[in-house]
C-alpha cells in the first residue's frame, strides 16, 4: 500500500467523520428550532419532538467518538491532522451538550404549560435570546465546515450579545418577583430556561475557539479579544 494511498484513505476517513459531525449539528439545530417553537407557541407536541430526538443525538455522539478513536489508533496522526481530530471530538461533545440544553428547555416548557403561570411573564424576551443562540450555533457549524477563522472571531464577539440578553432578562425577572412575590415560582422557571439558552451560546463559542485551534494551533480559551485578533493576523 503506497504512501499516497494511505494519505488518500486518511483524507476519506476525515471527510466521512466530518460529515457525521455536520449531520449531528443539523439534528441539534432542529432540536433548538423545535424548542424555540415550543416556547413561543407553548406547544407540547414540539417539546415532545425535542425530547424524542435526545436519544439519537446521544447515540450519534458515541458513534463519532468511536470513529475518532479508531482513526487515531490506526493512523497515528500528527500536527494539524491530530488537532483536527481532537477539535472534532470536542465539537461533537459540545453539540451533544447543546442537545442536552434543548432537551432541558423542552421539558421546562412542558412544565410551564402545565402550570400556566408563566404566560404573564416576559417569555418573549427569551425567544429573542433563543433565536440569537440558534443563529450563533448555525454560524459556528458553517465556520467549522470551512475552517473559517474570520467567521470564528465574529462568533466570539457575537456571544457577548447573548450574555447581555441574559443579564438584562435576569434583571427584569428580579423586578417582577420584587413587585409580585406570586410570580417567583414561574420566574425561576424562566430563569432556568434563560440559563439553558445562554449555555447554547457558550457551546457555539467553544466551537469557534476549536476552529482557531485547528487552523492556528493556538488555544484561545480565556484569552482577551485583542490577543485573539493578534493571533489571527
From TrEMBL:
Keyword field: Cytoplasm, Phosphate transport, Transport
Domain PhoU intervals: 22-108, 129-210
Gene3D superfamilies xrefs: Phosphate transport system protein phou homolog 2, domain 2
Pfam families reported in the protein's UniProt record: PhoU
Subcellular location: Cytoplasm
Location, primary (coarse class): cytoplasm
Subunit and interaction comment: Homodimer.
Function noted in UniProt: Plays a role in the regulation of phosphate uptake.
Similarity field: Belongs to the PhoU family.
Name of protein: Phosphate-specific transport system accessory protein PhoU
Amino acid at each position: 500500500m503506497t504512501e499516497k494511498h494511505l494519505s488518500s484513505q486518511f483524507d476519506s476517513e476525515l471527510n466521512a467523520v466530518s460529515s457525521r459531525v455536520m449531520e449531528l449539528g443539523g439534528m441539534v439545530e432542529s432540536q433548538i428550532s423545535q424548542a424555540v417553537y415550543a416556547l413561543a407557541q407553548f406547544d407540547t407536541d414540539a417539546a415532545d419532538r425535542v425530547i424524542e430526538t435526545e436519544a439519537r443525538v446521544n447515540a450519534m455522539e458515541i458513534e463519532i467518538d468511536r470513529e475518532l478513536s479508531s482513526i487515531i489508533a490506526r493512523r497515528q496522526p500528527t500536527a494539524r491532522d491530530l488537532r483536527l481530530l481532537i477539535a472534532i471530538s470536542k465539537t461533537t461533545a459540545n453539540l451533544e451538550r447543546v442537545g442536552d440544553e434543548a432537551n432541558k428547555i423542552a421539558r421546562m416548557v412542558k412544565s410551564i404549560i402545565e402550570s400556566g403561570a408563566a404566560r404573564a411573564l416576559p417569555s418573549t424576551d427569551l425567544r429573542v435570546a433563543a433565536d440569537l443562540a440558534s443563529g450563533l450555533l448555525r454560524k459556528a457549524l458553517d465556520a467549522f465546515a470551512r475552517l473559517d477563522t474570520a467567521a470564528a472571531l465574529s462568533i466570539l464577539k457575537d456571544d457577548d450579545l447573548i450574555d447581555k440578553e441574559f443579564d438584562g432578562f435576569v434583571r427584569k425577572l428580579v423586578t417582577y418577583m420584587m413587585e409580585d412575590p406570586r410570580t417567583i415560582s414561574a420566574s425561576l422557571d424562566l430563569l432556568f430556561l434563560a440559563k439553558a439558552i445562554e449555555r447554547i451560546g457558550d457551546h457555539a463559542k467553544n466551537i469557534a475557539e476549536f476552529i482557531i485551534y485547528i487552523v492556528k494551533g493556538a488555544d484561545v480559551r480565556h484569552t482577551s479579544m485583542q490577543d485573539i485578533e493578534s493571533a489571527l493576523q
